[in-house]
Design goal:
About 60% of the residues lie in helices and about 0% in strands. It starts with about 30 loop residues before the first helix and ends with a helix. It comes from Streptococcus macacae NCTC 11558.
Length: about 100
Amino acid sequence: MPANLNRQPENHEYYDFQEDYTPKYQEFQDFDDSRTKLRELIFFARLAFFCIVTILTCFILLVAKFPPLFAFPSALLISWGVTAAVKSAFKHFKAKQ
């Protein structure tokens, strides 16, 4: 394909460019570290509580001669229910204060 030799160079002075005056950076907004740390601590406490309840429930079900195929899923469901009940109890207790 032949090059366009008759092409005139564009002169950008003829065009009206509007410069964008928005800043190229944004101010850093500091997070509330104490609130974030408390949320993380509560998350890991709930996780540890779920694990402990699961282990104890599974142990009780296995000692009671429950079949292992049903003991482990039952223990997971029971511990999930207990954890949800404790969470709702804390929310109810917190709402009363």
